Structures are given as structure tokens and as C-alpha cells.
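User: I'm preparing a small set of examples for a lab meeting where we compare how different chains pack in three dimensions. I only have the primary sequence for this one, and I'd like the structure in C-alpha cell form so I can line it up with the others. Please keep the answer compact; I'll paste it straight into my notes.
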Amino acid sequence: MDGFSALVAVLAGLVTITGGIVAVWRYLRVRQRRESLQVSAPRLTDLNAGGHHHEALILSEQAIRSDPQDALAYVNKGWALNALGKHQKALQACEQAILLSLNAPIIRAAACRHKAWALNGLGNHYQALQACNDAIRLQPGVAANAYTYVTKSGALNGLGRPQEALQVCEEALRLYPEDDNLKAAIAKQKDAALKALRRH
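Assistant: Understood. Below is the C-alpha cell output for the 200-residue chain.
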């Protein structure tokens, strides 16, 4: 074998090795993406529900990088951002979730619920009230809407409508009477409504 043939054989071997490395790299990227997507839905919801909002935010952003069409990851990002007091960013995440979930009413309802929370946090109570009504219309009568009713009560209090806020609190309690966190949120809204009524 002359020098040129040996060089060609070495280069052919390198191409084969490089092709193998690229194939392994692609496999690992696909596997990493699948694992990221698996973390997305149930784990993010559990993290947010458990109060681990920083971790939920990091993982939801990772899920969105892996799949920019993952509406539920945007919902969880909005939830985490709201809980961290970053309402403008939460609103943006929820708006994106709404756009991505036009054919998924349960996800869209959750996005509307968290959008309302963000709008209340930003002082946009009328728009928050509309978002709450959208969530309730999309998913009527479910326990998850108990929190929507609390958010709606906050919007009504913000709009100076304390009597309606009290009525909405009762609806929240009817939907999910055994949740202690919900009871605390209802107590806060009832207190605000009663104070407003005493002032009038």
C-alpha cells in the first residue's frame, strides 16, 4: 500500500468515526429532549403546587427550550412567575400558553386562571375579571376553579364591588371546601370585602 492509499484509508476511517460520533451526539440530544418533555407536565405542576416555584421556573424554561409549542410548560412558567411576584413576565407566559392551547380547553382554562392572577397583581382588575370568566366558561364546575373564584373575588374587590366579592368567595368554598390554602386565600378576600363594606 503506497502512502496515498494509506492516507485515504485513514481519512475514510476518520469519516466513519466522525459519523459515529455525530450519530451518538444526535441520539443523546433526542434522549435529553424526551427526558425534558417527560419532566414538563406532572413534575412542573407538582413543584408549583408544593411551593417550589424557583425550581418549577427553571424546569419550565428548560421544557420550553426543548419544545417551544408546550403550552402546559408556559402555564407552569406563568404560575411560578406569579408566585415569585413577577406578574408582567407571568402575563407574557400565560398569553403564550393561551395562543398554543386553542384546541385544549383545560390547558387554556389554566392559562386564563394564571393570567387573571398576573393581571390582578398588575392592578388590571377589569381584565383579570374577564380572564377569570374565561377560565370558568372553559372549565365549569371543577375544583380547580375554586382558585379562579378567589382570583375573581380579588378582581371584584379591586373594582370596588365587595358584595359580589363575598358571593364569589362562597362559590370558591363550595367547589373545594377541604383545601386549607384555599380557605386562607378566601379569608383574605372576605376580610378585604368586609372592610370595604364597613367603610360605606
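A couple of notes for your slides: Residues 175 and 189 are 16 Å apart (CA to CA). The chain is about 85% helix and 0% strand.

User: Perfect, thanks.
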